[in-house]
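Suppose you are handed only these lines of text.
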Amino acid sequence: MPNSPNPSVDKFDASRADEYAQQSRIALAGYDACHDLLACMLAAHLGSGQPARILVVGAGGTAQEILACAALEPLWQFCAVDPSAAMLELAVSQLQARDLLERTDVHLGTLDDLAEGEAYDAATLVGVLHHLPGEAAKQKILAQLAQRLKPGAPLILAGNQQPYASHPLLLAAWGQRWRQQGASAEQVQAKLGKILQGADPPASEAAIAQLLADAGFGAPTRFFSSLFWGAWLAERNVD
Ligand SMILES: C[S@@+](CC[C@H](N)C(=O)[O-])C[C@H]1O[C@@H](n2cnc3c(N)ncnc32)[C@H](O)[C@@H]1O
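From them, the structure of the protein bound to S-adenosylmethionine can be written out as follows.
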């Protein structure tokens, strides 16, 4: 993985990685519920008790997608992809602690440099899309995911939607969420500043549906939402 400057990766440096497990659960109220439910959605789609290979893009930090899926479905195998060394290291330590490394291929990098192989039965992209600046980068990663999936396979897409400034009430409530967890007014401002830095969420749920359609996916089914955050399942079109 080349060391080129990349805003969606650079902001997940060692200092952010260190605090990620705790801070992500404050920033996203229902973090664990979202990950638990994505595992349930995939098992509902794929059927339980079957072997399956799951591509987990942006797996760094907690590896929570893998932990939740692996606990529900003992026969599933994973490929964890993340270009941030600090975030991926943290994910690997979570996987190691639960003996899940033997069920997981770990790739430091992006889908650009992941070796071609057999198509996956399912994929997840959680908390990544709104960090990718501009429409073209979002389109590209979704198209790459479509290419890596079997026809009809499910993609879990989760992340923030709507420009934050367009919804001052939700933004203010997000600040209150930090205060609720004990942050001072200055700390709330600092946290929000960090979260807002470089974020470029899709304009709406309709914009997300359009991005998915353009990349070769069917209409998404939303199964979770929390302030700006949403989580959807969409099937790759059958050619
Ligand atoms: C907010 S974290 C989400 C981590 C995890 N999916 C979760 O649910 O907690 C976003 C992750 O996306 C990674 N990322 C940024 N750009 C990426 C890209 N182009 N491809 C894959 N992952 C990317 C970052 O390095 C970071 O680890």
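What can we learn from it? The two ends are 32 Å apart (CA to CA). Residues 8-9, 12, 24, 57-62, 64-65, 81-84, 87, 110, 126-128, 131, 141 surround S-adenosylmethionine (CB under 6 Å).
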